[in-house]
Amino acid sequence: MKKKLLIIGGTGFIGYHVAKYAIKKGWKVTSISLKKPKKYRFISKVNYFRTNISKFNNLKKIIKDKYDYVLNAGGYVNHSKNKKDKKKIFGEHYVGLVNLTKIFSKKKIKSFVQIGTSTEYGKINIPHQENIVCKPKTFYSQAKLKATKHSIKLFKNKGFPITVLRFYLVYGPKQSNNRFITNIILGCIKNKKFPCSKGDQMRDICYIDDIVKSIFLSFIKKEASGNIFNIGFGKPIKIKKIIKYINSKVGKGFPQYGAIKYRKDEVLKYYPNIKKAKSKLGWKPKTSLTEGINKTIKFYNEKKIKI
C-alpha cells in the first residue's frame, strides 16, 4: 500500500518541494490550498483541492480519505500590523490548525507536522532555544505561537502525534520573487539596480532540500511528536555578504546598499540553536551556503521562468 500524504499549502514553495520528494518515494499526495498551483509548481501526480481551512464545514467535506501523514504548511506569511488583517491572519494560521486537528484527532494518522516560524520568538536573546518564553510582535507571529501552543497541548492531553518545526530563512529553486534570496538573484540576472538594506543583519538561511528532510524525519520518528524543533543552518551570516556573493557569482546587477532603511524594531541578530533537532531527529543541514546559492542561481539562469 502506498503511503498517503496530505499537504495543506501544497501549491506553495515548501509544499511543492515536499510533494515532489514524496512522489519520488512512491507516496500518494493530496494538496489543499486556497489557489491552484502556478505552472512552475504544478505536479501532475498530485491531487489538488481548493478551500479555506478556516472554514470547518468546507474542509470536512474535502478530507474524506485516510492519510498516514499530514503537513500543515498553509497560510501566507503576513507581517501586517493592520488590525483589519488580524482576523484573516489568525484564521489562516490558528483557526485553520484547530480545524485540521479537530478532524484528524478522530482519524488514525501516524504523524502531523505543523510549520511554525522563527518569528514566534520575537526580540529575545540569541541563539534561540525551543524552551524559552516567546515574545512575538506581529499578528502573524502571535497566531503561529498560538497554533504551536495548541499543538503541544493536544499531544500532552490526547497523545495526538504532532510536531512543530520552526523554520528560519528558507531558499531554493521555484521560490517566489518576494523572498530575499530569489529577489537578489533575479535582480542580478536581469542586470538591474535594486534596493537593499545596509546588510548588517545577521541571519540564518537554510536550503530547501534540508528543510524537506527535516519534515520527513519528523514524520517517521515517533519521538518527534510533542516537540518543537528549530530548523535552520545553525550559523548566521551577514546579509551583505550573501548579496555580495550572489552579485559576484552572477557577474551582473547593481545592489543599492542602504536604499531600504531598517525598521524601527529591526533585530540585527536572529538565529537558532539547532542542537535539539540534531539529537532527537537525527537531522542536520548538509547543503553549504555556496552550494545552495549556486544551485538556485543555476536554476534561474537555465529555466527562464516567470516568477
List the helices and strands and how they pair.
Layout: E1 4-8, H1 13-24, E2 28-33, E3 47-50, H2 56-62, E4 69-72, H3 86-104, E5 111-117, H4 139-158, E6 162-167, E7 169-171, H5 180-189, E8 193-195, E9 202-203, E10 205-207, H6 208-220, E11 228-231, E12 237-238, H7 239-250, E13 254-256, E14 269-270, H8 275-281, H9 289-303
Parallel strand pairs: 1-2, 1-4, 2-3, 4-5, 5-6, 6-11, 7-10, 8-13, 9-14
Antiparallel strand pairs: 9-12
Give a description of the structure.
The chain is α/β, with parallel strands linked by helices and 307 residues long. It folds into two domains: 4-169 and 206-231, NAD(P)-binding Rossmann-like Domain (Rossmann fold, 3-Layer(aba) Sandwich); 172-204 and 235-267 and 287-303, UDP-galactose 4-epimerase, domain 1. Helix content is 37%, strand content 18%. The protein has nine helices and 14 strands. It has a seven-stranded parallel β-sheet with strand order 3-2-1-4-5-6-11, sandwiched between helices. The protein has a three-stranded mixed β-sheet with strand order 12-9-14. α1 links the parallel β1 (4-8) and β2. The longest helix is centred in the middle third of the chain and has 20 residues, at 139-158. The protein is globular. The protein starts with a strand and ends with a helix. The model has no long low-confidence stretch (mean pLDDT 95).
